[in-house]
Amino acid sequence: MELKTLDYSVADGIARITLNRPAELNTMNGDFWTEMVQVFRAIEHDMDVRCVIIASTGKHFTAGLDLNWAGQNALATRGNADIGRQREAFRRHVKELQESFNVIDNCRVPVIAVCQGGCIGGGVDLVTACDLRVATADAFFTIQEVNIAIVADVGTLQRIPYLLPQGLVRELAYTGRRFPAAEAAKWGFVNRVEESHEAALAAAEAMARDICAKSPLAITGIKQVLNYGREHSIADGLEYVAVWNAGMLQGDDMGEAVKAQMARQSATFQNLKA
After folding, report:
1. Any idea what the CATH number is for the domain that residue 175 is in?
2. Which pLDDT belongs to residue 221?
3. In DSSP terms, which residues pair with 113 in a beta bridge?
4. Which residue among 4, 243, 263, 267 is buried most deeply as judged by most CB within 10 Å?
5. What tens digit of pLDDT does each residue of 75-132 get?
6. Which pTM was predicted?
7. For the domain that residue 244 is a member of, what is the CATH number?
8. C-alpha neighbours within 13 Å on the C-beta side of residue 185
9. Pairing mode, if any, of strands 140-142 and 179-180?
10. Average pLDDT across the chain, whole number
């Protein structure tokens, strides 16, 4: 897989995705949006992967959307068609961008974001689609779209209300102010705050190793049940998990886990079936 904006590797059950355009502040151009989908489709078919870490290079995690690319793309969608067809083409374009972060949210394994410096605009859309977030002490998050007269449209406004209280969500969305790591940790938006980028990466690696040691069947089930419960009633969620366990608990993992617990040993679990 040839990639221009991302580095991708898999080792020890962990897929590592790294934004690699530090000179451009890791802004999100056309290649980024398509490559993110490519990488997560590869992860879905690689049963060796039990956890994903998304990190970045340079001073900032990402400055968000590449405005030069976005401007050129907006002009391209206009063409000579009538206004209705122009707007319908633009709607499809936005849906394609949304899919680049939907694949993170829908990934069968947990995804951990490691943020240093600024996580701006589209960066917040990205990390809110992740399961866990680790930040450096100097990190900050900004719903930048309001500052350039845009309604954020690739996931932040849909996902962040499940991560933060409504009043705070609305303040951040209406004002576009910086949301520093210490405040984000206070509200539970980030799981860890570390002094350096290296320490933040190490913390994410430790979390990923812990996840990889668990039953992959249990982990994917937990993520499915949590995501399902986000959009359904408690009663629906309870019915869903009952059906899930009725099917999935027939495997060997529970027996292996109990046996290891009783022997005070670490269990070894097979990968999911491709």
Report:
1. 3.90.226.10
2. 96
3. 54, 133
4. 267
5. 555 666 788 988 898 899 999 999 999 999 999 999 999 999 999 999 999 999 999 9
6. 0.94
7. 1.10.12.10
8. 14
9. antiparallel
10. 94
